[in-house]
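Ticket #4471: structure output looks truncated?

Reporter: J.K.
Steps to reproduce: submitted the chain below (423 residues) through the standard prediction queue, then opened the result file.
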Amino acid sequence: MTSLDPAAEQLPRRRIARRVPRWSEIRPLVKFRQPRFDPRERRLAAAHTIDDLRTIARRRTPRPVFDYVDGAAEQEISLGRARTAFENVELHPRVLRDVTRIEPETEILGGPSALPLVLAPTGFTRMMHHEGEIAVARAAARAGLPYVLSTMGTTDLETVRASAPAARQWFQLYLWKDRAASEILIERAAKAGYEALVLTVDTPVGGARMRDVRNGLTIPPTLTVRTLAGMAIRPAWWMNLLTTEPLQFASLSNFDGTVEELIGKMFDPSLTVDDLQWLRERWPGKLVVKGIQSVADAETMAEHGVDALVLSNHGGRQLDRAPTPLELLPRVADAVGHSCEILIDTGVRTGADLVAARALGASAAMIGRPYLYGLMAAGEQGVDRALDILATEYARTMRLLGVVRTSEIDAQHATLRSAYHGL
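Returned output as attached by the reporter:
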């Protein structure tokens, strides 16, 4: 190749001098990792994101169990859209701001939270890992975050409450056809000291979760030829399942069958807005309604005086092609944000997602799958790791955004790209 500068061709080529390096120069570059004797610590050392935890979880648990957590209804379109919505958020940073010290803390339902984050209710949690709900409650307490125990939990609500007595714990309720049984459950939650009741309203019938159908998943898992073969692949999971307390629902009699069959047998499809008054008369604390998917329903909930609502399509596990909560959030915030708090779930995977939810009008976001991936990966330590990842990402995003306090995050800091670009 001919040089553009003829004079440069006249310059002599300079050879790079080489020498043998001294040990004193090499020694600082040689690093040996400290051995990790705890197998959970070894696994978690490779987990830098929630997706990393998901990869580990998939290796640690039987396929039907992993798919129960990871999957959604029908074609899983709602789940994919929820994640895409967060990916389409554009953050708008401001520069030359002193972000040496930040305050990620916030207030949710009148109480403190270390992040704008709530651990959502998940059913059958001891199926994912034998430590189950107690592990999640303890991790949430250490992280300073509220935890919502599910009606479909596998540890009784008194035991979970006692496992982290100083923590903020809420109780999630499905109203059953047997209202007397529901009323007893409400009374137990109040007596145990749960500060809020979260009524889930998007399950008049069970969604068609096709991964569970194809895997033949039942609660508890049955010993079929397929599951017996799975024991050889995931022996640790099966050993933990078979040598700890039997896997069963803590709040109802033993049930053998699929999730869809259980919902059809137990849940009340006749539930209407009038039942909110029935619930108010029996519950003394904060009332949250989870499963709102329209502005009109949000306005109705606000008119009935709920303390908070959760924009949720049940993690994409009920009605496929349901509205995407993050896309719905700005309209709901405009309509009822002055009347009640708004939370959001489905699709949250990173600390930046928490920033996006807050900027678009939510008090906080709820997560289910992210902490369950941690639980499946390494039990209680895995949940700790999941929450630590989200806290680190949230703090870093705040700094890069030029924000010092969670209370400062608002609509100027994030935009849904489809709206911003007029697409």
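Triage note (M.O.): checked the attachment and the full token line is present. The chain has a mean pLDDT of 89.
Status: closed, working as intended.
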